[in-house]
Structure formats: structure tokens, C-alpha cells
Amino acid sequence: MEAVNAIGRRKAAVARVFVTEGTGKIVINKRELEDYFPSSILQFIVKQPLNKLEVLEKYDIRINMQGGGYKGQAEAARLGIARALVKINPDDKPALRAEGFITRDPRVVERKKPGQPGARKKFQFSKR
Q1: Which residue from 47, 52, 81 is spatially nearest to 65, judged by alpha carbons?
Q2: pLDDT tens digits, residue range 43-52?
Q3: What would the pLDDT profile of 8-37 be if each residue is shown by its tens digit?
Q4: Are the C-beta atoms of residues 63 and 16 closer than 8 Å to each other?
Q5: Which of 3, 17, 62, 121 fits 80 for a cystine, CB–CB 3.0-4.6 Å?
Q6: Is the Cβ–Cβ distance between 18 and 24 less than 8 Å?
């Protein structure tokens, strides 16, 4: 099997995912998963689609990550991995869809507007 690639996005993070057959090694920006995401919660988020399909030790995964914070990056990686697994075996799509791993989360930060301090916040109004 040649490498299957997919893209996952979340907030400002973009994850380009390459999946090949292997032993379950996950490398992000040439660093091991445990080095890149020291938090076990974020490691769990990245591995969720693999755990759901019970194929954690079946594939090697290489991820090029850009932008965003650590939470957005972990969720972008999860989406990319889920999309790649669906490309490998389309029969897995309903199981991943039921867990919500296929859906791209569209929520992004609202832009700051001119003449006010934030996206929604206004400067304090003074009558006199």
C-alpha cells in the first residue's frame, strides 16, 4: 500500500496527514507524538479514530502541522487521520461519522472590528 494523504483543519491549524502500513508510529513535524504533544489528553485526541477502528498498531502516520494552538492542532490531526482512514477503507465511514470525527468544525475566531477593542466588545460609553 502506498501512502494515503488527507488534510485536516481546525481553527487556524492545518494538518497534512500521510498514512502508510506499519507499526503504529505517529510522527508530527519530524518529532514523536509524545514529544510534540506532552499532554496525554491531546495524544488521546489524535489517536481517537485509530482506537475507534482498532487499527492503532496497523499504520504509520506522518503529519506536517502548521498554524494554530495545541488544541486546534490535535483536532486538525484527528480530522486528517479520520479522512485518510476513510480513503483506505470507505466501509469505516459510518463508524467514524457517528463519533463526529469526519465533520470539520467550522468555528473560527471572529475578526476584530475597527473602532472597538475586540470582535464584539465596545469601548465604555460616556454620556458626559
Answers
A1: 81
A2: 999 999 999 9
A3: 999 999 999 999 999 999 999 999 999 999
A4: yes
A5: 17
A6: no
> Which cell numbers in the block locate residue 30?
519530524
pLDDT in tens, 91-117: 999 999 999 999 999 999 999 999 999
The answer to whether the CB of 72 falls within 8 A of the CB of 12 is yes
DSSP H or E stretch at residue 50: helix 40-53
Strand partners, 4: 19
Cell 470582535 -> residue = 119
The DSSP H or E segment spanning 88 is helix 70-88
CA 86 to chain centre: 15
